[in-house]
Amino acid sequence: MRVLHVLPPASGGMLRHLKCLVAGLTDVEPFCVAVPGAGLEALRAMDRAPCAPLPLPNRATLSALLRASLATATASRRWRPDLIHGHGYRGMLVAGVASCLARRPFLFTAHTLPNELGRGFWRLAGPLARRARAAACVSQAIQRGLAERLALPPAGSFSRALNSGMLRVIYNGIEPGPPPGPRVPLPADLGLPTARPVVITAARLAPQKGIAHLLDAWARLAPTFPEGILLVAGDGPLRPELEAQATVLGIGSSVRLLGFREDMDALLRAADLAVVPSLAEGQSIFTLEAMARGVPVVATHVGGLPEMVREGRTGLLVPPADPPALATAMARLLNDQELASAMAREARVLVEREWTVARMLAGYRDLYREVWHTVKQS
Q1: Which of 3, 28, 156, 313 has the fewest CB atoms inside 10 Å of its own CB, making it the most exposed?
Q2: What is the reported pLDDT for 11?
């Protein structure tokens, strides 16, 4: 089977997801169109799939989307894939138009909650999304939101387009790695050899990630943990504002905004607590990585997070945008090592059972085969 992947301007999570599919589905012949930059270069460096540039800027106009679709249709005519696979909602738009032009069936992966995009987007995207043969959702929360947004026909209905039976949950997976060991010192470049406790989060510094609320919560806890440090890995438009907020709250010396880091595994092995304060979240790879490394997790009860963080079993959940509740939950796990360790152990078991790369690859292999079977029968 030959599959053409469409990667729009993407965050690290979407690119990593595609790299897993390209590398892991060895019985699928992959091709890629991707926006010039780090994503395209990373795919080319794998030397596994022919790649072509996708002319799609971050702020895509309708004309830019059409140009990208034409480029994808041209690549499809050249490579003649059996399926076109769009990644993310912009990838879905490009793949959908290209499938009409090149007369190839398409499917897409929904990586984020559909309500993060406005009504105007869905007036354009809805009809195209319904033309897809299938859609993979990385969480049940996304599946519910997309089914509601698209008002799909019931499963089993005779349709050459998307119906509720072909709207599948295929969780993103990670490699759990070796069993967790004792906490280790932080990387030497941070200059914090004795900091404890170490609290960590990783996210794009954007409003929906809730980092401002985490800083408010840490300001409540910092006096209790004078040797503690809050690490924020990631970058984004709110960085200057968050740095100013930390200064105003008087916690500048106990907060480090690290920017993008390539050594998240080392940071997690040094961490005592991981926090995910998002206001909206389809799925969080950082949460899975923390669970796999034996780091207890506090997260907000939004989107797909409760599917990973099972309240009272694999971590603690709090309402979004509630710094007092967030601080209380963080303090509970920092002060009760027995409870934190028990939750971390169960979280590791859950990752090994449900959230592996092998399980994700099996889900996509089955989905591709099922779609191609229905295409050949229609």
Answers
A1: 156
A2: 63
Q: Characterize 279-295 residue by residue with b for buried, 16 or more Cβ atoms within 10 angstroms of its Cβ, and e for exposed.
A: bbbbbbbbbbbbbbbbb
Nearest residue to 213 via CA among 321, 301, 316 = 321
Alpha-carbon distances, residue 375 vs 135, 138, 273, 324 (angstroms): 15, 24, 48, 53
Q: Is residue 180 part of a domain?
A: no
CA distance 64 to 58: 10
Tell me, yes or no, whether 162 and 196 share the same domain. no
pLDDT, one tens digit per residue, over 319-340 is 999 999 999 999 999 999 999 9
Which of 22, 142, 152, 131 shows the shortest CA–CA distance to 371?
A: 131
Q: For residue 36, give the CATH number of its domain.
A: 3.40.50.2000
Residue 361 and residue 222 share a domain: no
Q: Which residues contact 46 (CB under 8 A, 6 or more apart)?
A: 19, 22, 23
CA distance 86 to 246: 39
Dihedrals φ, ψ of 288, to 5°?
Answer: -60, -40
- Residue 292 to residue 344: CA distance in whole angstroms: 8
Do 164 and 48 belong to one domain? yes
Report pLDDT for 13: 82
Domain with 370 in it:
2-173+356-377
User: Does residue 183 register a pLDDT over 80?
Assistant: yes
Within a domain: residue 151? yes
**H or E element that contains 78:** helix 62-79
Which residues does 236 contact at the CB level (< 8 Å), separation at least 6? 204, 205, 206, 209
Q: How far is 58 from 26, CA to CA, in rounded Å? A: 31
Split into its structural domains, the chain has a count of: 2
Instruction: Determine whether 24 is exposed, middle or buried from the number of CB atoms within 10 Å of its CB (0-12, 13-18, 19+).
Output: middle
What is 309-345 written as a DSSP string? S-BTTTBEEE-TT-HHHHHHHHHHHHH-HHHHHHHHH
Please give the pLDDT value at position 53. 95
Could you give phi then psi for residue 354, rounded to 5 degrees? -120, -15
Same domain for 19 and 38, yes or no, is yes
Per-residue model confidence (pLDDT) at position 145: 92
Burial grade of 158 (CB within 10 A; 0-12, 13-18, 19 or more): exposed
